[in-house]
Specification:
disordered N terminus; Transketolase_C; 7-stranded mixed sheet; transferase; 19 strands; 26 helices; alpha/beta; Rossmann fold; 4 domains; 5-stranded parallel sheet; thiamine biosynthesis
């Protein structure tokens, strides 16, 4: 049940999909003969490709779990039984099966379906996601709650092999095994990074080990062994594990208290359904290892699942994607700077938490493979690893999205800043990010980093300044953070040589005006330039959030009646708050208006639509200045 009324698709949007048009909800799916599931999967893939080719979004992951998604809703009584998807990139098939198939044309559009599971969008979305490795912990909480309330419900966490490598996943596995709680974890291995399936024998073995005969023997054996001397019981227990370890890779999970089954073919309905039915009736912590092919059913995505993981609108016949903007993106500016800086300094080491392509590090990784580390989905470890490198005289650069740096806040404080270590943070996707929505927005980094001692924090206003501030941060002998937005800037040429650094804590006047001064911190500089010319305002490109250019603020406060601070960060605790704090401590009396992101989460939409909603487009800024002008005229000085 969606709380969104808007859709780009008509009520008969599923006419081209005969089976899907009859399967509006999982209860309809469960009425189908099992033989109909394979053709249903074919229709779902066609709908996924048709919809995502128009809207853009995450494609390859969803294509890979079509059979698994159908089997889960076919076997389990959703929404009473809970399905918890990790990350959410793979959840489009789940949306199609849970009453939202006709709205797929509105995916990631303003007022349309979210690109991730979202609790207020559907009762079938039992947990909101967007960041990785949360599913097992959330599902365990739900399972414990069900037991406490006396509710007999199944809880299933579906997690990918990449997300399983993160610390949160293992923390949850550890607790679940210790509690001996009823919980099913499905490990979706879509890159064979854990193990390869071993064909028909593996599928047969999984069905056997999840069946009643083996389960009753296993539990009965435990009961019998409990009355024997512990040395004998330990010996037999070890024998069981060694025998299972000879034919399957589940010893680690068994040691953590899980009954491991698999690996099985995640595209074989007969095996999937039978195994899930067996495991539904088992108790305790269980883990099913399913091997799938990312991008399954679309040749372009099968051949290059990384490129087709997240796509812009594309031609479904050729796979060719639309390109937005002709200039360099800020991400590309960072990648170019990184390669240039590494050429001049062999102490530079680059680190990413599983975001090589997204952070613009592909070329660097090829040129400097011995100075490049992808640590996986492990943001906390990325910063502590960087701190260790810095302790030994290397100069680590951590490329990370603003929204993911949130996960390493303790390490930023305790391991990097407290020790005043020379770590450079290149923080991408700062500000709003468009269609990915609130889970991926970089709305808070200025606020959460500004309060940390020893930090230098910078925000470039254009591409050339981004390159120069990256060099400034790198040359600074302590922790320094450069935040820059997603996408392209105003189109300023960067140049090809290693950039000159800028003086720390110094901004600049871009335009002289009267009465009103606009103090811009970062990505909204080009918009502010237009506004300043329209109202004859002074425009200050502040560049540094910490340390502030206090001399420039003093000058502007002494010569203008109104100061407008402008940032693509939440107002609370952000750059504008820093200006307010300084003015208050210095005793300056001047009207200040802080413009930034509001105290609420902004839903998915285009970046421009999000700025408009926040009042940070040119019209919104002009309107705020006009209001401030009217109010200030009547103040008694």
């Amino acid at each position: 049940m969606s709380d969104r009324g808007s859709s780009d698709q008509s009520p008969n949007a599923l006419e081209a999909y005969p089976l899907l048009s009859k399967v509006k909800l999982p209860r309809d799916l469960r009425q189908l003969d099992q033989a109909k599931l394979r053709p249903l999967a074919g229709e779902m893939r066609r709908l996924l490709i048709d919809a995502v080719s128009q809207t853009g979004g995450h494609l390859a992951a969803g294509l890979g779990v079509v059979e698994l998604t159908i089997a889960l809703h076919y076997v389990f009584n959703t929404p009473y039984d809970r399905l918890v998807w990790d990350v959410g990139h793979q959840a489009y098939p789940h949306k199609i099966l849970t009453g939202r198939g006709e709205q797929m044309g509105s995916l990631r559009q303003q007022g349309g379906l979210s690109g991730f599971p979202k609790r207020r969008e559907s009762e079938y979305d039992s947990f909101g996601t967007g960041h990785s490795s949360t599913s097992i912990g959330a599902a365990l909480g739900m399972a414990v709650a069900a037991k406490q309330k006396g509710e007999k419900r199944n809880v299933v966490a579906i997690i990918g092999d990449g997300a399983m490598g993160a610390g949160m996943a293992f923390e949850a596995l550890n607790q679940a095994g210790a509690l001996d709680q009823d919980l099913l974890v499905i490990l979706n291995d879509n890159d064979m990074s854990i193990s390869k399936p071993v064909g028909g024998f593996s599928n047969h073995l999984a069905r056997l080990l999840s069946g009643k005969v083996y389960t009753s023997m296993r539990e009965g054996g435990k009961s019998a062994l409990s009355h024997l001397p512990h040395q004998v019981g330990d010996l037999v227990g070890r024998w069981e594990e060694h025998m299972k370890g000879m034919v399957m890779p589940g010893t680690l999970f068994e040691e953590m208290g899980f009954n491991y089954i698999g690996p099985i073919d995640g595209h074989d309905f007969d095996t999937l359904v039978a195994t899930l039915q067996n495991m539904r009736n088992m108790s305790g912590p269980r883990l099913l290892h399913v091997v799938t092919q990312k991008g399954r059913g679309y040749v372009h995505a099968e051949n290059d699942p990384c490129v087709y993981h997240g796509v812009t609108p594309f031609d479904p016949d050729t796979g060719k994607m639309e390109k937005h903007g002709s200039g360099k993106t800020y991400t590309q500016v960072f990648g170019d700077w990184l390669c240039a800086a590494a050429k001049h300094d062999d102490r530079l080491v680059a680190i990413t938490p599983a975001m090589c392509e997204g952070s613009g590090m592909v070329q660097y990784a090829k040129q400097y493979p011995n100075r490049y580390y992808d640590v996986g989905i492990a943001e906390q470890h990325a910063l502590t690893f960087a701190a260790g490198l810095a302790c030994e005289g290397l100069k680590p650069v951590v490329a990370i999205y603003s929204t993911f740096l949130q996960r390493a806040y303790d390490q930023l404080i305790h391991d990097v800043a407290l020790q005043d270590l020379d770590v450079t943070l290149a923080v991408d996707r700062a500000g709003q990010v468009g269609a990915d929505g609130a889970t991926h927005a970089g709305s808070f980094d200025l606020s959460y980093a500004r309060s940390i001692p020893n930090m230098v924090i910078m925000a470039p206003g254009d591409e050339r300044e981004c390159s120069r501030l990256l060099q400034t941060a790198y040359d600074y002998p302590g922790p320094a953070l450069v935040r820059y937005p997603r996408g392209s800037g105003p189109g300023v040429d960067v140049g090809s040589s290693l950039p000159a650094r800028l003086p720390i804590g110094e901004g600049e006047i871009r335009r002289n005006g009267s009465r009103v001064a606009i103090l811009v911190f970062g990505s909204l500089l080009a918009t502010a330039q237009q506004v300043a010319e329209h109202v004859d305002a002074t425009l200050a490109n502040m560049r540094f959030i910490k340390p502030l250019d206090e001399k420039l603020i003093d000058k502007l406060a002494g010569t203008h009646q109104i100061l407008i601070t402008l940032e693509e960060n939440v107002v609370m605790g952000g750059a504008g708050s820093a200006v307010n704090e300084y003015l208050a401590s210095s005793g300056r009396q001047v009207r200040v208006l802080n413009l930034g992101l509001p105290d609420r989460y902004l839903d998915h939409a285009s970046h421009q639509q999000q700025l408009s909603e926040a009042g940070l487009d040119s019209e919104g800024i002009l309107a705020a200045i006009e209001r401030a002008n009217r109010e200030t005229k009547f103040q008694v000085v």
